[in-house]
Amino acid sequence: MMSAAKNGKSPGGCGNSQPGQNVRKVCEPSYAPIIACITAAFIIELCLLWFFFSSVPVITTYVPYTVQRNDTLWDIAKKFAPEEMDLREYIQILQEENKDSGISKGMPVGSGEYLMLPMIEYRQRGQVLWQKND
Fold first, then answer.
1. 93-100 — which CB contacts under 8 Å span 24+ positions?
2. In the structure, what pLDDT confidence band is assigned to residue 55 with cuts at 50, 70 and 90?
């Protein structure tokens, strides 16, 4: 095994001076760790921005509703679901919130059936985290 002085390299691999020369070369810094840290910080910031400022559906209140003749869950969802929400998602929430009715078991709604319709608003995720429960 050759020593660093014998093979013409200085310890640490920074200089390229020849044996017998008293020239000291300063190593050039590597920017890779700095770039990696800046990139990681940027990605974390984007994730936090998405998390705190994206919107999530929140049930704000319930409205009693009596099913009319020829009503379907789809018709009810079209009337009461927020515009941003997929109607299938609203129907699923409607079924979950009305567990005592037949619609939670996959049965069709019947005329005169009484449902509690969830009124849903989209709120920023950060706002929902610190919202007081009444």
1. 93/57, 93/59, 93/118, 93/120, 94/118, 97/59, 97/62
2. confident
Report whether pLDDT(14) > 60.
no
How many other C-beta atoms can be found within 10 angstroms of the C-beta atom of residue 103?
A: 22
Q: What is the pTM of this model?
A: 0.54
Task: Tell me the per-residue pLDDT of 70-93, one tens digit each, with 9 for 90 and over.
Answer: 999 999 999 999 888 899 999 999
106 torsion bin: left (phi>0), alpha (psi -120 to 50), beta (else)? left
Tokens of 70: 């020829």
CA 12 to centroid of chain Cα atoms: 45
Distance separating alpha carbons of residues 103 and 130, to the nearest angstrom: 33
H-type helices in 1-134, by residue range? Answer: 32-53, 73-80, 87-97, 125-129
Strand 114-124, strand 55-66: pairing: antiparallel
